[in-house]
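Practice set, problem 2.
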Amino acid sequence: MTNKIKVIISNAQKVVKIPTGVRMLVRRCCHAVLVQENFEDSAEISVTFVDDAQIQELNKTHRSIDKPTDVLSFPLGENGVYDENPDTGAKMLGDIVISMERAVAQAQLYGHPLQREVAFLTVHSMLHLLGYDHVNGGLEAVHMREKEEAVLTQLGLKRNGSYYYDGE
């Protein structure tokens, strides 16, 4: 079982009202991923809600992609080695930045609640913080998607259809 998990959540945007319960849901998602991955140390994760303009700036600065995206992950560890908070001894996993504007748009696109979309983005980003990647596609991407769905199903947020928009 995982030790103490600290999830620091901040809202740096004013476009989307953060629904009641979303912060607790984000914490549950972070915890569920760490349990699934058998992460046994204490951990700290930072989650920030931003708007499209803010995430576009981060995407441009850190990835040289000048457009908004739904979520960015800034891992602080590499190959399972993480910096530790000197005060608590917790492993500092990194930062998750979620565009609430994108989350709202994608929830509408996929026909599920905003909570489900924020949960998916959080779980997806947590896996990045733990070293998973999907950029090269193939089995790695499939493996990551399976892990995402396992956590979301466990949290009662099973997918209700396809992630692929068919234009209708």
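Problem 2, part (b): a different protein.
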Amino acid sequence: MKSYDAIVVGAGPAGIFAAHRLAESGWKVLLIDKGASLAERKCLSRGGLPCVKCKTCSIMCGWGGAGAFSDGKLTLSPNVGGRLGEYVGQERLQKYISQADDIYLAYGAPTKLYQPDPAFADEVRGRAVRAGLRYVPSPVRHMGSDRSVDVLKGLFENLSPKIDISLKDEVLDFETAKDGTHRVMAISGEYSCRFLVLAPGREGSAWFSELGRQKKLTSAINPVDIGVRVEVPFEAMKDLTDRLYEPKLHFTSETFEDAVRTFCVNPRGYVTTECVDGLVTVNGHSFRDRRSDTTNFALLVSNRFTEPFHDSIAYGRHVAKLANLLGGGVLLQRLGDLEAGRRSTPERINRNVFAPTLAEATPGDLSLVLPHRHLTSIVEMLKALDRLSPGIYSRDTLIYGVEVKFYSNTIKLSAELESEVPNLFAIGDGAGVTRGVIQASASGLVVADAILGKK
């Protein structure tokens, strides 16, 4: 067996940033991911063709993880993007967010920062309150999907001479010896290490949850985020997106008092698909040099399950499976059709004042897919958003479904993100710790510093 100081499983932002910091200290590191290199990550659906449900999704897996082809937004606030602050504290989290941001800047992220002046932030906060919403001020650095790839290329070129990187590989299992060292069994072979870092990403959340069950690790059930992707004319949100880029808005639904939030706002962006374990879900991107006439964003409803139900991932998969069953992939419905209680048809979509940017989406009826509770909460938030920014709640507003964010059940972790198994750490979205690129990156730095302090 080849021996390493540390093995990192997952080459998304969390895994890359952990490996980057360890490599800076001259550590012998192996980084494993089931996906391919950036150059090999090809997806037909990014070119407008239907998703063919590859066994390993090139949008979700590989160097850079799901963040590689995301909108490339770095939200530099400790108040959004995950639960990392619950472990390390808000002040320490802000320090790590700043460190992660500095690394992105060093590899070519744009220096421009979308940060509203205090007067405009106060204005938006007041408008949001009157609409029944809560505005969370968040500085945003926008890379765009294309520049994100350039930054990740730079990170790969810097790291590949310093560490071993095994792509198109997969960890099958691991065993921990009495002395705290780990034996890792992968498709490519067996390896040993003192420190093992699991950074599975959202695509690996089910794998991570199952691993926790097998190892009998104490776990807590994470919420599941289920919702839709909304598309409106660019002008409907222009006053917000021009100065904030991504307004973070939270809402408590009137009927069920569920938590609903905006996520991944893409001014002049494009609605896209992604595939998780054979299920096609919807997402959104924007680019540096390619612009549409629309803005899209997700509306996500969070539900936390209690006894006796434990599998929030299975619940999210079931909802996504219904959409795939009825539409062969992503379903699309005009808001006017949803209000009228009828399915959208190609003819009704063609009469819209703007065309959908995801042409492959199947016109249909989302009320046959989303639970009544979720759909009611989403419609109520759309009405609230319209009070904040008139034009959002329109008969021609397009709703794509479903968007599901899979986060695994969180295992018990220390303030340094170390598990009950000595020298075993868990980081990133797939471990249920974070919910976005910048906090995932920061979690990698947290664990790397913890490991460096142990040697």
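Answer key, part (b): The radius of gyration is 21 Å. Residues 224-405 form one domain.
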